[in-house]
Amino acid sequence: MKFNRFIGASILVGAAAFAQADTLTFKGLDANKSQDVTIKYDGANLTVSAGLARLSLNGAPDHFGLCVDLDHWNTNGLSYEVNVKPIGQQGPNATRAAYLLNTFSSTVTSKAQGAALQLAVWDVIYDNGDGFAEGRFRTQSVPSDTLAAANTYLQQSVSQTSSAAVWYEARSHGPLGKSNQNFMAVPEPASMIALGAGLLALARRRRRA
Question: Where are the domains of the chain?
Answer without folding.
Answer: 4-208
